Amino acid sequence: MTLDFAPSGTRLDSHEVTNQATVLTDYNAFDSDPALSAALEREGGGWAKARASKLGAVVGSQELQHQAYLANKFVPELMTHDRFGHRLDEVEYHPAYHYLMSQAFGAGVAGLAWSSEKPGGHLARAVLSFLWNQGENGVGCPTGMAYAAVPALRQSPRLRDSWAKKLTVKSYDPELRPEVEKASLTIGMTLTEKQAGSDLRGSTTRARQAGAKDEYLLTGHKWFCSAPMSDGFFVIAYTDAGPTLFVVPRVLPDGKRNRFYIQMLKDKCGNRSNASSSIELCDTFAWRISEEGKGIRTAMEDAHLTRLDFAVGSAGLMRQALSQAIHYGRGRRAFQKPIASQPLMQNVLADLALESEAAMTLVLRIARAIDEAEQGSETAKQLQRIGPPLVKFFVCKTASGFTAEALECMGGNGYIENHMLARLYREAPLNCIWEGSSNMVCLDVLRALEQNPSLMDVMMAELRKAQGADPSLDAMIDSFTADLAGLGNAPYHARWLAERLVRMWQAALLLQHTPSYVADAFVSTRLDGNRGFHYGAMGGQYDTGAILERAAPPELFPARV
Ligand SMILES: Cc1cc2nc3c(=O)[nH]c(=O)nc-3n(C[C@H](O)[C@H](O)[C@H](O)COP(=O)(O)OP(=O)(O)OC[C@H]3O[C@@H](n4cnc5c(N)ncnc54)[C@H](O)[C@@H]3O)c2cc1C
Q1: Positive or negative CA dihedral for 84, 86, 92, 95?
Q2: Separation of 189 CA from ligand 1 center, angstroms?
Q3: Which atom of ligand 1 is least distant from the CA of 145?
């Protein structure tokens, strides 16, 4: 019998597919970004260009994109017990996750700031993190934690030469073994409890001394514990003197497992390659890091590093969303022209490009302040205090709306899970939440200004570096302190304050360091109000073509129309 519904000559595999954009792959995320390269040079990290270019090629590679897809599709699984009922408390990851961890730790995304012998280590590491976050974001949690944990660990005579050093090594070892048997380590931080997240003084975990002066046993729970297969964790627990900071190792020095019970893994909106768990501690061994009662203060001393890193991560995420949107628009035609050259889409893409460059420029300026603060600059110490909470609020907050818009630039394709934009969109809100949610970091900005009145003078001097470049910015700076004084009820206005400072700082930097078609468009749209509520509602007076060519130079950025 012959089937008559497939006449000979009909192709059953598929019809011909036309006018679909290509996948943006096998490009160099650093070499194709002249604004990033200029910022690295300007802020004092020119020596790291070759390293950044190497990572840029990895990030743009098909291999990394595929591994990132796999690690987020095949999510970590909890194994509480082995087949005979013994407790395991292990998380099993897809091999793609370990591949990503090796790439990120191996490139120095975690450790370069501390292992670099050249000045500008924090800046160079920030550029690596910016690039890495264009590739995959779940791994940004363990790299950020390892980066930020080093100063606190260096305060501990016991852990300074072991744990602190091994977090900066450019390799990744996933095995649970005692610290002495490992060349490199990872670390997490588990502070949040069910009843207390923003207000850590509400923690209920208790610590009692056992053995040597800095050895304790902890009992309690932690409601959020990300990267639970890390070698150790910062934990806050109460002694009689108050909240105190400890390090809990997963494996004890004698090779036995510590009493660290993983209760469940969270089913998260995004950040799916990275496991986030709830844990119980029951007479769990720990080393004390802070003085008793000073744990929150010690933990917060290094919060500027994680906060900056999350803002850097969000800026990287936005940069990738922009790259995807421009590439798609150049490769897809509608109404006889590439979508990216249709006037209204040019307005949208150029608007996104301005936001992306402003975010990158500011986070890298603050990274330089961290380098200079370490070298003893008093001005930089002040900027280091206020800069990280400012960008943690503003840049992380911007990422959600930004990725939603970039996703729409790709039409229906952007909403489908095997396009990168869908993942970036689900990832975007997270950096607002952890390490101090938006309100908390805005209140922190306020606190910084109240505690140190000279900080406002330093901030104003930083902004006045662009004095005379634009009358709107000059006027805004001149009236700022008076505007602030007139507000009253300061906490109510903390977001307003943070927004103002960020917008002025971004404008000042762009006016000093970018071509006028970028800086003037930014000031006109963001300070003077020549822009509507959504992206793509800028006035008609801007050179959107030049803005887009800067964001994605056609000769460096594969656009196969
Ligand atoms: C995916 C994921 C992973 C996480 N991983 C970790 C981890 O590894 N370790 C860890 O310790 N934590 C982790 N967290 C928890 C995170 O740090 C907390 O969720 C965060 O600190 C907020 O705490 P909360 O959820 O208890 O919110 P709440 O404290 O209940 O706050 C709720 C809201 O109220 C606001 N708010 C609180 N106080 C004020 C105030 N005075 N004025 C105005 N607004 C206020 C907050 O800004 C927030 O928006 C993770 C969270 C997520 C989503």
Answers
A1: negative
A2: 13
A3: 8
Do 460 and 371 belong together in one domain?
A: yes
CATH number, residue 431:
1.20.140.10
Kindly state if the Cβ of 350 falls inside 6 Å of ligand 1: no
Residue 531 DSSP class: B
Range(s) of the domain holding residue 487? 302-551
Q: Whose CA is nearest to atom 51 of ligand 1?
A: 434
**CB of 140 closer than 6 A to ligand 1?**
no
Establish if 480 belongs to a structural domain: yes
Torsions phi, psi for 477 (to 5 deg): -65, -45
pLDDT digits 0-9 by tens, 169-198: 999 999 999 999 999 999 999 999 999 999
Q: Where are the beta strands (DSSP E) in 51-150?
A: 77-81, 87-92
Could you tell me if the CB of 234 is within 6 A of ligand 1? no
* 346 in a structural domain: yes
Stated pTM of the model: 0.97
Tens digit of pLDDT for each residue in 490-540? 999 999 999 999 999 999 999 999 999 999 999 999 999 999 999 999 999
Shortest-distance atom of ligand 1 to CA 199: 29
Say if ligand 1 is within 6 A of residue 442 CB.
Answer: no
Measured CA to CA, the distance from residue 84 to residue 449 in angstroms comes to 58
